[in-house]
Amino acid sequence: DPTKGIQYGKQALEFSKSIQWHDGIAKSLLVIGQNNYNIGEIDAAKKNYLQGLNETQNQSIVATLYKSIGALHTSNADYANGLAYHFKSLKVSTAIQNEVGMADAYYSIGTVYHYMEDTEKSLSNFKKSLSIYTKLNQKAGICASFRAIAAVYMFLNRHQEAMSYLEKSLKIAK
Hints:
Elements: H1 2-18, H2 22-38, H3 42-55, H4 59-75, H5 79-95, H6 99-115, H7 119-136, H8 139-155, H9 159-173
Helix pairs in contact: 1-2, 2-3, 2-4, 3-4, 4-5, 4-6, 5-6, 6-7, 6-8, 7-8, 8-9
């Protein structure tokens, strides 16, 4: 329930402010922003994400905020800004050696390129995410990457290759 999510996020925000915990403030703003986004309050979500960036030096939180801002731009078909923020997330995740963050960023970048119909870059990034998720044995990420690769192959009318990736995803999901 996004309304309760906002309510709880605001409680966490007030508590974090009361103890001057800047990472907690940033995380609270992230949660509030995600719930704003889920109920269509896009401007409020963006405002909270950007405010969160000003509150923390924690690079893991920064990467997540960048990812969220990138997703917000992407959902509004602002692909240039979506890519810019996803690349920022990738850069930060790489710098702090957060492999899950790197895989998530590659996946998000692949998604934007897919929306832009740049199939070569889309496939390249989805395959990078798949490689990392596989290394980490992150089954949800592996399945999502397989399905995303299949979607690109479907777009290219390469149905046999798409089916192969969908079958791989199904096998792991079982």
